[in-house]
Design goal:
Layout: H1 35-44, E1 46-51, E2 54-59, H2 60-73, H3 77-93, H4 104-122
Antiparallel strand pairs: 1-2
Helix pairs in contact: 2-3, 3-4
């Protein structure tokens, strides 16, 4: 008869890891990259963009930020929300004196309007009603 203690989350003794022995003895292969490493490498690659009628080579990360800022300046609410969220995250991640980057009044304004922007971006839009 089968063991009553065997079931979901309780494999039979023969299928359990032995004490002191790893479930992944060889570990991650040395040549494989992590997602963060791949993402950083991809965002650091250079691409050519056209800005003010001239071609410029910038990183993909810089190009993404430029396009996000351009959309935000055109009034795209989602881009505004994403830009403010990114800005707040960068500000809180910086070590040292944050007052040099954003003064206290600007920080209070950002804290006051960020939730309103997030709420307006996530609220369902009604179509066909006035």
């Amino acid at each position: 008869m089968s063991d009553p203690k065997v079931g979901y989350g309780r494999p039979p003794k023969s299928g359990q890891f032995k004490r002191g022995k790893s479930g992944n003895p060889r570990g991650r292969p040395k040549g494989s990259l992590r997602l963060a490493t791949d993402l950083a490498a991809e965002l650091n690659e250079q691409i050519t963009i056209r800005e003010d009628g001239r071609q410029r080579r910038v990183s993909k990360q810089r190009a993404l930020i430029k396009s996000l800022v351009a959309k935000a300046l055109q009034g795209d609410v989602r881009a505004n929300t994403a830009m403010l969220a990114l800005y707040m995250r960068v500000i809180t991640d910086l070590p040292g004196d944050q007052e040099a980057i954003v003064d206290n009044i600007e920080l209070q304004i950002l804290r006051r309007f960020a939730p309103k922007l997030l709420k307006s971006a996530t609220s369902p839009k009604r179509r066909g009603t006035k």
